[in-house]
Amino acid sequence: MAQQDTDQQHAGVLPVDDDGFVIDTQDTDERETAWRERGTSRPITVFGNPVLHRECKDVTEFGPELDRLVADMFASQRTAEGVGLAANQIGVDLKVFVYDCQDDEGVRHVGVVCNPKLVDLPADRRRLDDSNEGCLSVPTAYAPLARPDYAEVTGQDEKGNPIKVRGTGYFARCLQHETDHLYGYLYIDRLSKRERKDALRQMAENEPRYPVVAND
């Protein structure tokens, strides 16, 4: 494991592995709890809210206000029983997402990514997984969606330090799903017209299990 200098450790940066990717699998319960207990749960914005359908603004200021937002996002994610949450899902127009997600091996990953960008992988690394996908902003609806079963994201942590995150299986899906959100895409935007219509029907016919912001 690559070591970080004292200033980086003091800044709260996660350790990195030999390839420069954050190690987000250590002290997961303690880190998630610390964030969540400082935050206030907010209702989830749902399909149709304008903030979900446009690219969010870059995070340019890293400080107490961003920390409060991240804490609220972890609290909101726990209330909604989600595995990932983008800022626009609680109505905030900023490129930041949090995650608390297991991969297909059952390993838990917890972290924060600001200004994420998906790395364009070569074709030989794009084995597709067509598992079901759902979204807190399209409550109660699920549909199969083919995505690569490996993903890499570059961005910044909550202190503004550059980071790289990678994941496989379900966690890879989470990284792609949350990055999509911050560029104005929901997973149903990647479905066929028929599948999208069915997902919206599911949403209309069922009640969400967590507080949501009603669209006007």
UniProtKB/TrEMBL annotation:
<comment type="function">
    <text>Removes the formyl group from the N-terminal Met of newly synthesized proteins. Requires at least a dipeptide for an efficient rate of reaction. N-terminal L-methionine is a prerequisite for activity but the enzyme has broad specificity at other positions.</text>
</comment>
<dbReference type="InterPro" id="IPR036821">
    <property type="entry name" value="Peptide_deformylase_sf"/>
</dbReference>
<dbReference type="Pfam" id="PF01327">
    <property type="entry name" value="Pep_deformylase"/>
</dbReference>
<comment type="similarity">
    <text>Belongs to the polypeptide deformylase family.</text>
</comment>
<feature type="binding site">
    <location>
        <position position="181"/>
    </location>
    <ligand>
        <name>Fe cation</name>
    </ligand>
</feature>
<keyword id="KW-0378">Hydrolase</keyword>
<feature type="region of interest" description="Disordered">
    <location>
        <begin position="1"/>
        <end position="21"/>
    </location>
</feature>
<keyword id="KW-0648">Protein biosynthesis</keyword>
<keyword id="KW-0479">Metal-binding</keyword>
<feature type="binding site">
    <location>
        <position position="135"/>
    </location>
    <ligand>
        <name>Fe cation</name>
    </ligand>
</feature>
<feature type="binding site">
    <location>
        <position position="177"/>
    </location>
    <ligand>
        <name>Fe cation</name>
    </ligand>
</feature>
<dbReference type="InterPro" id="IPR023635">
    <property type="entry name" value="Peptide_deformylase"/>
</dbReference>
<feature type="active site">
    <location>
        <position position="178"/>
    </location>
</feature>
<keyword id="KW-0408">Iron</keyword>
<protein>
    <recommendedName>
        <fullName>Peptide deformylase</fullName>
        <ecNumber>3.5.1.88</ecNumber>
    </recommendedName>
</protein>
